[in-house]
Structures are given as structure tokens and as C-alpha cells.
Amino acid sequence: MEESKKGFVIWIKQHKKQLIVAGISIAAIISLILVIKNRKAIMELWASLKRMVSNTSVKIPESKATVNVTIATETKTIPIQEISASRSLPAQQIPFDVSGHPRTLSKGWCASAEKIATAAENGYPNLLPNQTWVVPYIKGAIAA
Q1: 40-84 pLDDT tens trace
Q2: Pairing relation of β-strands 74-79 and 66-71?
Q3: pTM for the whole thing?
Q4: Which residues are bridge partners to 66 per DSSP?
Q5: Which of 66, 59, 63, 67 is CA-nearest to residue 84?
Q6: Could you give phi then psi for residue 83, rounded to 5 degrees?
Q7: Number of domains in the chain
């Protein structure tokens, strides 16, 4: 019994490449057959996904919120409505505030005295040696 198991394992090791190719080929053939049989349903799904993506746009509510946009060295304050009027924003690009927080630095880097003082002012008096303080900022703004 042990010899037949050893012989089978040896045969598998000797034919590893052929077994892998055969497995991939069988999976590809089965996938092809399933795609051919369900072609109509797949085409309907694809069309509905296209319609969903083309109809998706984010509407920003009326507000007096503004976004600071920096281009080269010039900073402008632009109302959010002006940005949304010029183009529709995907959900990932809606501007939002990021609060101040500690951030871990790469090895060998340390925070400046200014950042340590800012962290202490914001309730973090003891930053670790490899941490710094990130000041609040707006993320997701589009530079015009």
C-alpha cells in the first residue's frame, strides 16, 4: 500500500506540468461553454452596467462651502457649486475635510520641533520618535 502511494506521488511530481496544463485547459473549456450558453444573460448584464455607469453622477447640495485649489504657486478659493457646474464629480472626488492626526514616518525620520509643538496643542503631547503631526486639510479637491 505504501509503495503504491509513493509511486503515485512520484508519478504526479514527474507529470506536474502536464497536469497543470490539463487542469487549466479543462477550466478554460468549461468557462467557454458556460459563456456560450449564457451569452444573452451576460450581454444584458453588461448593458445594464453600462447604463448604470453612464447615469451615475454626484449632485452636490447647495451650500456656501468653498475649496482652496492651488495651481503652481497661486491659491484660489472656489465655491463647490462652481466646481460641480463645470463637471460632474465621481464619488471619490467630492472634497472632504481630513482632521489633524499623528502619522508614522519611515525609519530614520523624525518630526520637526514645530510639528511636535502642533501635536501638543492638539492634545497629543507625547508623539513617538518615528511619528509626526499631520495638519488638517481638504482632500479630493480638483485643481482646475
Answers
A1: 998 998 888 888 777 665 555 555 556 565 555 566 666 655 554
A2: antiparallel
A3: 0.36
A4: 79
A5: 59
A6: -65, -45
A7: 2
